Amino acid sequence: MKLQDTITSEEDIHTTFEVVPEEADLVTTIYEAEDSSGSVTFDRGSFLSSSPGFSGTGYYDMSGDGDYIQWSISSYLAGSYPVSFRYAHGSTGNNGQRPLDLYVNDVFVKTMDFTFTDWWQYYKYTELVDVDLVEGTNTIKLLVNNGYGGPNIDHMRIGKPPAVVIKTNGWPRTVAKNGVGLLDDWGVDLNGMAVTMPSYPDPPQVSFSVASN
Q: What is the rounded radius of gyration, in angstroms, for the C-alpha atoms of the chain?
């Protein structure tokens, strides 16, 4: 797959985004924070929609220590799966860090970094973390335990997106090893739009924002 867009400056610069063929068949599954089917439990945070750029219908605004959000998921075979979380974090307190503890089936996995995204309307993904799931039902929980509160959680993603090679006028510039995404919107459609690379998130994430010509 190849998407092409043009950035107008002193001369036309053609930027293409090419999925790495070896990873073209990789798929991901999105689990929204605001899922109303009963598969999401939480403590005392709030479900809001005032900071645009989210997927679905909103996000979970995490509160202070002890607050959590937990997904109950099924339909997976036993094995190791990569998991990541899309979130926004616009506060510079605690050096821009709001780490959360990750639990799978009530077992602590690790403390994950949720770093400053520059604005509450800028969303990015965390690192991919491999977790062990059992056949049948599994629970995946994020817990606030840092003294500063948590970020806004948009959704959980299970699976790894295909890597994307970003080229300028046919020359490879970088590889977005976990795919590309929009900071300030959900869904990627580059046709007839200009690409603006932001200061956040830092490489190797290589997400970007899109502005109309």
A: 18
Rounded-to-integer distance, Cα 150 and Cα 141, Å: 13
> 0.85 cut: is pTM over it?
no
Beta strands 136-144 and 129-133, pairing class: unpaired
Could you tell me the sign of the dihedral formed by the alpha carbons of 71, 117, 199, 11, in that order?
Answer: positive
The candidate with the shortest Cα–Cα distance to 49, out of 121, 150, 124, 118, is 121
Q: Is 177 strand, coil or helix? A: coil
Topology adopted by domain 29-158: Jelly Rolls (2.60.120)
Q: Residues 47-88: pLDDT tens digits?
A: 999 999 999 999 999 999 999 999 999 878 899 999 999 999
Taking Cα atoms as reference points, which of 131, 126, 24 lies closest to residue 73? 131
Q: Which two tokens stand for residue 196?
A: 């603006």
Q: Give per-residue burial for 66-85: e unless 16+ CB within 10 Å, then b.
A: ebbbbbbbeeeeeeebbbbb
